[in-house]
Amino acid sequence: MSKDKYFKKILREAGEAKMYCDYPNDSKISFDCLFEMYNQDSILQQVELRSLYEREGSYSIALNHLVNEIQSICFYLDNTSKPFKDYKKEDIQVFLGDKVSMVSIIYIAKLFNRRNNNKASHSGTNNFLSQGVTKQEYFNYKGKMNIFLREISSYSFAASGRD
């Protein structure tokens, strides 16, 4: 993956702390903790795929990878004995319960619900029609990621025992 031009750009942006932050000098986000989190292969893979589909304009697929990215971050930080494939939205909500704001918990619940009403992940039924994700909708969800990352990086930094 290190030879892939898209992956190199993602790593460069992560190293420059531009991954999600609209304001790269926002001191409320612990970039050391973000780097530690984003140094996990499962998380990096989701970032790479999300970025690739985002650049292609495939926002339904990019949203799936955004959800997977959050799930991977939470799984990495949670000391659970569950296998990753069994780590679901409910587990994430329990884990995040006292670590992030209710705004972030609601954001994540809505994001998972939207992913489940997304034709890229579910085709729908006779009673339920799935819908594609628009560019505006995708960037709205992605934009709210800043709040979650700020809060979870603060938790991760505090939990690591670093000052």
Give structural notes:
It is a single chain. This protein is mainly alpha-helical and 163 residues long. The protein has one domain. The longest helix is centred in the middle third of the chain and has 19 residues. About 7% of the residues have low confidence.
Number of extended strands: 0
List the secondary-structure elements in sequence, H or E: HHHHHHHH
What is the oligomer described by this structure? Answer: single chain
- The portion of residues assigned to helices is 55-70%
Outline the low-pLDDT stretches: 18-29
Count of structural domains: 1
Q: Provide the structure class.
A: mainly alpha
Inertia-based shape: globular
Distance between the ends = 34 Å
Gyration radius from CA atoms, angstroms: 16 Å
Number of helices: 8
Largest sheet: none
Q: Report mean pLDDT, rounded to a whole number.
A: 76
Provide the β-strand percentage band.
under 5%
Chain-wise SSE layout:
Elements: H1 5-15, H2 31-37, H3 41-56, H4 59-77, H5 89-96, H6 102-116, H7 135-143, H8 145-160
In short:
The protein is an all-alpha fold.
What attributes does this structure have?
single chain; 163 residues
